[in-house]
Amino acid sequence: MSGVEARLRLRYGEFSLQAEFELPGRGITALFGPSGSGKTTALRCVAGLERARGYLRFENEVWQDDAAGRFVPTHRRAIGYVFQEASLFPHLSVRRNLEFGWKRIPPAQRRVVFDDAVALLGVGHLLQRQPARLSGGERQRVAIVRALLTSPRLLLMDEPLAALDHRSKLEILPYLERLHGELAIPVLYVSHSPDEVARLADTMVLMERGQVRAVGPATELLVRLDLPLAHADDAGAVIDAVVGGHDGEYHLTHLDFDGGRISVPSAARTAGAPVRLRIHARDVSLAQALHRDTSILNILPVEVTAIDEAGPAQLLVKLCAGTTPLLARITRRSGAALALHTGQRLFAQIKSVALVE
Amino acid sequence: MTLTQVPLEPVWLTLKLATLTTVLLLLVGTPVAWWLARTRSWWKHPISAVVALPLVLPPTVLGFYLLLLLGPNGPVGHLTTALGLGTLPFTFAGLVVGSTLYSFPFVVQPLQNAFEALGSRPLEVAATLRATPWQAFTTVAVPLALPGFITGAVLGFAHTVGEFGVVLMIGGNIPGETKVLSVAIYDHVEALEWDQTHWLAGGMLLFSFLVVLAMYLVARRARQVAL
Questions:
Q1: ipTM, interface predicted TM-score of the complex
Q2: CATH number (domain holding residue A252)
Q3: A90 closest CB neighbour out of B124, B127, B227
Q4: What would the 3-class secondary structure string for chain B be?
């Protein structure tokens, strides 16, 4: 059975939401779309903070079924919710904020240990402070711990990084990645940042004007040429790979995936560990022959699977290396010089790779 | 004249009236203010206007209608008589009812402002942390709206201590029952008893100053704690 099944209809004034989706009960699912696309409203409906008409099921519990007159209020849904602004209670210390939800969970049902959650997000040294004396990043970390301490079966996060400056964002992202790795709680994560989605999401729900445009694995949706994501400036492919080994002499780490091996400057990962790579379309160039006379380290044999225009001067080329999709953005002139066509076998030269987790 | 000769009965009566009225005001005013702060109903506006009426009505007008309503021929009078409570005008209980209505906006408005300033976010957060609506109200809304409660209580208390017109209309001037401080001062002035007048009026002046000062200090402190 899928994790979340939702059929939601809501209308206020100009805005209307008409969303139907089924989501897996594990990993991070990103609700992604431009502002006004209804992603936050959909999340609030899942939490019961907003009342749409329709049907909503989480695992084996029906949280809303208007046909049967059923609506489970927010405080009886086993969710954790992280708002865009940390929204800590200003009259309570950090510790009492954390205990607010924790103490309402019967001890037998607590699946998250207080000290573990505090340590996971690194807020142990803040417990005695008042929320007003925390930085934006610290506040949001406390808010995440506070939500985790209700032992949620589903964690809902509404653009938890959007209200933060760049530095605080970079401070929190690693914690979110740890969350992903160490807790088996499914997460619904609202975002309008392709970068966050690329780093965090396993599954993706693409929303537009109150409707679901596409649902699928993030690695697939990010490179689909018929969706806007692949056309964004910093578009690129995300590849889930494993650490294959280290090259001691040149201090390189090899990352293996179906379709090839990519080497990056030594990363402190043990062999066999999963890693996520991001390869921007602008960092991939194409060649007909395998050049040995180049400084580019990573060259993969690929096949062209689709070609689309990207403005008057450029082409977006979807490739596959084995079963792994890649994107390349090249000039139309280069495309003509290569006589680019689908099915063509080429070599992708990858100028840079970002290690995501 | 020594302090023991000052007629203190009206003072105690006034304090008793103001205390009871304040408690009643908070009990009735809080749900009304909560509803006004959070409803999207069209009824919000007419109800707000009714709550604010005592601010603009002459107390004599309010007293006059209360007299009709609570009197032996009024609907409420019929009810209280049928329940064996007799009629309320010219009793201490009648004064409490009149004072509560008269001071209602002084409690409801600060509370409503405090609840509105709160917004819905803290309550949503509380709900996602498994708090029932009642727990969210008592553990989040009330502490965060504390300055509003303090302001409302102090204003309600002080306004009741200072009322005159409504008291005279529905309470009259019965010693030990409805003869409160403001009426007693009026009596002493009429009788040219300046000593008593000075003690009571001066005491009232000092009391009022201290109350307002305390309110400002407490509200400021509560705000600092909330931040």
A1: 0.85
A2: 2.40.50.100
A3: B227
A4: CCHHHCCCHHHHHHHHHHHHHHHHHHHHHHHHHHHHHHCCCCCHHHHHHHHHHHHHCCHHHHHHHHHHHHCCCCHHHHHHHHCCCCCCCCCHHHHHHHHHHHHHHHHHHHHHHHHHHHCCHHHHHHHHCCCCHHHHHHHHHHHHCHHHHHHHHHHHHHHHHCCCHHHHHHCCCCCCCCCCHHHHHHHHHHCCCHHHHHHHHHHHHHHHHHHHHHHHHHHHHHHHHHC
